[in-house]
UniProtKB/TrEMBL annotation:
<keyword id="KW-0902">Two-component regulatory system</keyword>
<keyword id="KW-0418">Kinase</keyword>
<dbReference type="GO" id="GO:0016301">
    <property type="term" value="F:kinase activity"/>
</dbReference>
<feature type="domain" description="Histidine kinase/HSP90-like ATPase">
    <location>
        <begin position="128"/>
        <end position="217"/>
    </location>
</feature>
<dbReference type="Pfam" id="PF02518">
    <property type="entry name" value="HATPase_c"/>
</dbReference>
<dbReference type="InterPro" id="IPR050482">
    <property type="entry name" value="Sensor_HK_TwoCompSys"/>
</dbReference>
<dbReference type="InterPro" id="IPR003594">
    <property type="entry name" value="HATPase_dom"/>
</dbReference>
<protein>
    <recommendedName>
        <fullName>histidine kinase</fullName>
        <ecNumber>2.7.13.3</ecNumber>
    </recommendedName>
</protein>
<keyword id="KW-0808">Transferase</keyword>
<dbReference type="InterPro" id="IPR036890">
    <property type="entry name" value="HATPase_C_sf"/>
</dbReference>
C-alpha cells in the first residue's frame, strides 16, 4: 500500500508538472500575439485615426465620419482581442484592479461582486495571470450556461496559502456526473499548474456552483525552483 501511495503521488506530481509546462507554453505564445496586436496593430490604428482626424476632407464629413467610426471599432476590436489572448497590463496594475475592470466590462450581463480581505499581497505574475484566467473562464461559463444573475469572488491570504472562492446562483451541476467541457478542464489545468488544491461544491442542482481554490504561498513543486524564476 505504501508503495502504491508513493507511485500515485509521483503520478499526480508528474501530471501537475506537465500542466505547468503546457500552461506556460500557451501563455508565452498568447503573450507574444497579444503584445503584437496591442503594441503594433493597435498603435498603427491609433496613428491612422489621428491622421484621419486631421485630414481636410473639404465637405465630405459623412465619409470622414464613417471612416472614423470604422477605425474606432477596429481599435476597440484589437484591444479586445489582445485582452482576451493575454492580460497585457496585468503586471503593472495587479490582479485586483484587473478583475475590477473585468467586472465593469461584464456589468451589463451579470452582477459580479468581489471581496478581497485586508492583508492581500500581490502575487508573482504567473499566479496572478492564472487566477485571472480562472475567474474569466468561470464567469464566461456562468453567463453562457447557468442562467445565474450573480457571481461572488472572495480572496484571502493566509500564512501558508491563498484562498480563492468563486460562486454563482445559477443552475449548478453535479460534478461527478456532468461531462467535463473545455471550460472546467481549462480551470483545473490552470489550478494544477500552480500546484494548488481545489474542490467543486455543487452537488445540488439549482443551488449554484462554487469552486474553492487553495494556492500554496510559494506555489513550488518539490525539488524544483519556483516556476516563475
Amino acid at each position: 500500500m505504501k508503495e502504491k501511495n508513493v507511485q500515485h503521488e509521483a503520478e499526480v506530481l508528474h501530471q501537475k508538472k506537465l500542466a505547468l509546462e503546457n500552461i506556460k507554453a500557451q501563455e508565452e505564445e498568447r503573450k507574444r500575439i497579444a503584445v503584437t496586436i496591442h503594441d503594433d496593430i493597435g498603435n498603427r490604428l491609433n496613428i491612422l485615426s489621428l491622421w484621419l482626424n486631421n485630414l481636410d476632407t473639404k465637405g465630405d464629413e459623412i465619409i470622414k465620419k464613417n471612416i472614423y467610426s470604422q477605425m474606432s471599432a477596429l481599435i476597440d476590436a484589437a484591444r479586445s482581442i489582445s485582452h482576451s489572448l493575454y492580460p497585457v497590463n496585468l503586471e503593472s496594475v495587479g490582479l485586483v484592479l484587473y478583475v475590477e475592470e473585468l467586472i465593469a466590462n461584464l456589468s451589463h450581463k451579470i452582477n459580479i461582486s468581489m471581496q478581497v480581505m485586508p492583508g492581500y499581497k500581490k502575487k508573482d505574475l504567473f499566479v496572478e495571470v492564472q487566477l485571472y484566467r480562472i475567474i474569466q473562464e468561470f464567469t464566461t461559463n456562468v453567463i453562457k450556461h447557468s442562467d445565474a444573475t450573480d457571481i461572488w469572488i472572495y480572496i484571502k491570504d493566509y500564512p501558508y496559502n491563498m484562498a480563492v472562492v468563486i460562486s454563482d446562483n445559477g443552475q449548478g451541476f453535479d460534478y461527478d456526473k456532468v461531462k467535463k467541457g473545455m471550460g472546467i478542464k481549462n480551470i483545473e489545468s490552470r489550478i494544477q499548474s500552480m500546484n494548488a488544491a481545489y474542490k467543486w461544491k455543487n452537488t445540488f442542482l439549482n443551488k449554484g456552483s462554487r469552486i474553492i481554490i487553495k494556492i500554496p504561498k510559494h506555489n513550488e513543486f518539490p525539488n524544483q525552483d519556483s516556476p516563475d524564476r
